[in-house]
Every structure is written in structure tokens, then in C-alpha cells.
Amino acid sequence: MAIPNSQLETWSHQGSITQSSDTYQTIRTALMDAKAVYASQFFTVFLQGSYGNATNIYAESDVDTVIRLESIFHGDVTALSPEDQQAYHAGFGGPPSYTFAEFKQGVVTRLNNAFGSSDVTQGNKAIAIKASGSRRSADVIACYEYRRYTRFKSLTDQAYVSGIIFSSSWSGDIINYPKQHAENCTVKHQATSTWFKPMVRIVKNMRKKLVNDGVISNDVAPSYFIEGMLYSVPNGKYGTSYEDTFVNSISWLLEADRTKLTCAHEQYWLLGNSNVQWNSTKCDQFLNALVKLWKEW
């Protein structure tokens, strides 16, 4: 028996908006404070994750905020010709005087001063801030710019894709492209006549039920990978009803060559063995669990 459309409709709704927005503004204000030791550096603060992409569900609480140091960057020149690589190395001097380690410690200090050290914890990837009063829990990622170069003739003639890079205590440096991810998800949403983001929320709610019921573990299908999975589904599979869209999308995914699915930012394949890719076994496990939940509702 299929999941009734009334349940799918409930699951399609976005979670907290006002409270999440207020939480982000509180954190952004703290990070932008002129008293921060990094205030003289060039940096940007922006949203990423489910709330930033409008795919958050009621069961989610964290507001993900990125603070990216712009005054230094890591350049990936592996795709450049030898001549372009030579021009790149000639164009830039020695190491910067201000380091990312200094910047990250300054961010931790600023958050401790703003919210109290008992509410701030430095985790594997992010700096976690506990919920308090009307403020939701939040994660802050301190990072710096990552540039994947596609051309470098000179400082005035260069091309690159800009992302972020930060360290994980478990798996080394993590490279991601949150702005491209968000922009592409918005384009996909519009191209599917606004069916894409509600479907992401439906599948994320199904994931939450599967976790709560003990069918899958919490790490099998992170939200980021669910968005990438559904981003790869052709636009023509969306529409008519939530039931039709779910069946058409999952059927397509089950038949597709899943090694060719891309992340929503389109910078690398969705499935793989790196620390920014989805393990194919976990993807298969999740798809099979979705089908079982649908059929046995």
C-alpha cells in the first residue's frame, strides 16, 4: 500500500523558518562583531545546509553557518597545463603572514565570548552552539577559500571555481562548494515547477522515520546526499502529484547508472569513497529501505 498523499503533503512542508532565521542573524551578528580578533581580515558569513537551501524539516534543528576567510586560499592547479602552472607559481609569492589556524581560533574565541564557553563545543568538523531560549542549536564552519583552477595566464587572466576547505579531525581536509549547491538547487526547484524542494523534504522525513524505527542508522543518508540524489533525477520525473513524483523518481534512480549521479554543485560524482562522497552501499541501502517503507505502509 502506498503512503497516502495526505501524509506526503504533511511531510512536504518546510520546518522552522522564523526561529531559524533569528538564530542565523544572532550568530552572524556575533561573528561580524568589531571586537573579533579577526575583524581586520577579509571574510564572509553565509548560510549552508538544509535551512539555507529551504529543505529543512520539522525534525531538524541545527542552523548551519559558514564563516570563510577570503584573505588566503588553497589553489588546486592539477587541471592546468604546465605553462599555466608555471604562471600560477610565478604570480603568487610565499606563505601568507596570517594563517587559517589563527582565524579559526579567533572564531572559537568570538563564539565563546558571545554565547559562553559552556554552550560552545569544537567538534569534528564544526563548532557547535547549544540551543538556548528561542535560539536554535547551530553549527559554525570556519573555513577558507578553495580555488579549483581551470585557467591561469596571469593575475589578470585566470579562471577558477571557488569553494571552501576546512579540516576534519577524522578524515582530513574537506572540500565543498556550498554556494554552487544552493544556487543549483534553486534552479532545479524552478525547473521542476517547484516540486524539487518539497520532494527533498518528503524523502528526508521518510529517512527520519526509518531511523526512528531502527531500519537504518542515522549516518546512512545525510541530508546533503539526499539533495544530490534527487537533484540528479530528470526534471520530467517531477510533477502531477507527490505520489507520482516519488514513484517516478525512485524508479528512475533504481534503474539508473548511479555511478553517474552528481552532487548538486556538479563538481564531482555523488557516489564514491572520498570524505565528501556517499558510499554506494549506503545509497543502495537507503533506496531499498524507501521502497520497503512505501510498499508496506
Tell me what the structure shows.
The chain is an alpha+beta fold. The protein folds into two domains: 18-176, Beta Polymerase, domain 2, CATH 3.30.460; 181-295, no CATH class. The chain is built from ten helices and seven strands. Strands 1, 2, 3, 4, 5, 6 and 7 form a seven-stranded mixed sheet that branches. Helix 1 (5-11) crosses helix 7.
Number of helices: 10
The whole-number mean of residue pLDDT values reads 94
Largest sheet: 7 strands, mixed
Strand content: 15-25%
Structural class: alpha+beta
C-alpha Rg (nearest Å): 21 Å
Report the strand count.
7
By CATH, the topology of the largest domain is Beta Polymerase, domain 2
Q: Class of the largest domain in CATH?
A: Alpha Beta
Question: How many structural domains?
Answer: 2
Identify the CATH architecture of the largest domain. 2-Layer Sandwich
The stretches of 5 or more residues where confidence is low (pLDDT under 50) are none
Helix and strand run = HHEHEHHEEEEEHHHHH
What's the overall geometry?
Answer: globular
Calculate the terminal CA-CA distance, rounded to whole Å. 6 Å
Share of residues in helices: 40-55%
